[in-house]
Design brief:
Elements lengths: L1 E10 L6 H20 L3 E6 L7 E6 L2 E6 L7 E11 L2 H15 L3 E5 L7
Antiparallel strand pairs: 1-5, 1-6, 2-5, 3-4
Helix pairs in contact: 1-2
Length: 117
């Protein structure tokens, strides 16, 4: 089975009120449990706000570090889940479940195989 990255895009600044967030997280944990029960879950984690990021680039022989996200945008990756799925359609179905309960955009990207495919 191929691995897929499900990236959850969160708006910059602020989270839902505590009651709403608790309901969302209960549903997110239920989806994670479904993935685990099916043997498809690999890894998941939430990220701190984009302002905590540091970007490292190499330029003219020196490593340059910049505070904050590299791209100026109103949405940033707020969390990720890595799953195993037989194909893209199956991965997209899991993304639909996450998008429904979080109301956030979910980007789905396959990992490259070791042979680069």
């Amino acid at each position: 089975m191929k691995k897929y990255l499900l990236s959850m895009y969160a708006p910059e600044g602020g989270t839902p009120d505590p009651d709403t967030l608790a309901k969302i997280m209960t549903e997110v944990h239920a989806i994670r449990q479904q993935l685990q029960d099916a043997g498809l879950w690999v890894f998941a984690g939430g990220l701190h706000e984009a302002r905590t990021a540091t970007v490292v680039r190499f330029d003219r022989g020196k490593a340059l570090m910049t505070d904050g996200p590299y791209a100026e945008t109103k949405e940033h990756i707020g969390g990720i889940t890595v799953i195993r799925a037989p194909d893209l359609d199956a991965a997209l179905e899991w993304a639909r479940k996450y998008a429904k309960v979080t109301t956030l955009p979910i980007e789905v990207r396959p990992f490259r195989d070791q042979d680069g495919q």
